[in-house]
Design a protein that fits this description.
about 100 residues, three-stranded mixed sheet, alpha+beta, CBS-domain, 2 domains, about 30% helix
Length: about 100
Amino acid sequence: MALHTMEQEGISSVYVLNENKKVEGIITLEKAVKAKKNDDDLQPYLIKEYPKTAPETPLNELIPLASTSKFPIVVENKNGILQGIIVRVSVLSSLTKGSDTDD
């Protein structure tokens, strides 16, 4: 399923959720291919350390996280339930907004 989603969407990683919509980890395309090739479960291939934040986190606090992570930022509520995903480019592009000047 993860590999199929990545192929359809043209992306190189996806977050894997459990039945309660809690993030189990992230799987990269390379690891998903390896799991499929070996007919393995995804769990051993999941990256368990991933960037996450709360819904009320201000944008300026997300900039350091977005600039150092290679994965999108997970937004989780206080119970660890996925609320959304913030792609890094959305945060980093906010740095250029307002800096454009009309000459």
